[in-house]
Amino acid sequence: MNALILYGTETGNAEATATAISQVLAGTVDSEVHDLADTTPDAMTQAGADLVVLVTATHGEGDFAGGGADFFEALTETKPDLTGLRFAVFGLGDSYYTTFNQAGETAATILTTLGATQVGDTARHDASSGDDPEEIAEEWAREVLAALPAPVAS
């Protein structure tokens, strides 16, 4: 099984969280970690990934952090058929703001609208909680792994 882990970050937290998720998946799932700023929507379908994991921070007024805005704008413009693609979303935000984790919610909505199927619940890390996002992500990644369908025996 292969996973493509994509992150959008302003401060580096989403990148560190994406790396922590990759480490949990190691041994069970082969994964690659990429910055959304350096990725096009085609990567989701051309990489042959069985699972796309999006790790995105909410920035400003509910916007995607880092390259996420350009990535999701291109995705909504090109409207690829993502039927058969499974995805999971780990959002980072701060409940101090009314737009708490809006980017993660928006990402999940866009992908399901294009036909992709979400695995597990969207994670919503709260920076105000004081919890380490990497620790929360590791636990969440184990839950996502458990929710994946078992591979078909050949």
Automatic annotation (TrEMBL):
Gene3D superfamilies per UniProt: 3.40.50.360
InterPro entries: Flavdoxin-like (IPR001094), Flavodoxin/NO_synth (IPR008254), Flavoprotein-like_sf (IPR029039)
Domain Flavodoxin-like, first and last residues per copy: 3-145
Keywords: Flavoprotein
GO MF, one example: sulfite reductase (NADPH) activity
Domain of life: Bacteria
SUPFAM superfamilies: Flavoproteins
One matching Pfam family: Flavodoxin_1
GO CC term, one of those recorded: cytosol
Protein's UniProt name: Flavodoxin-like domain-containing protein
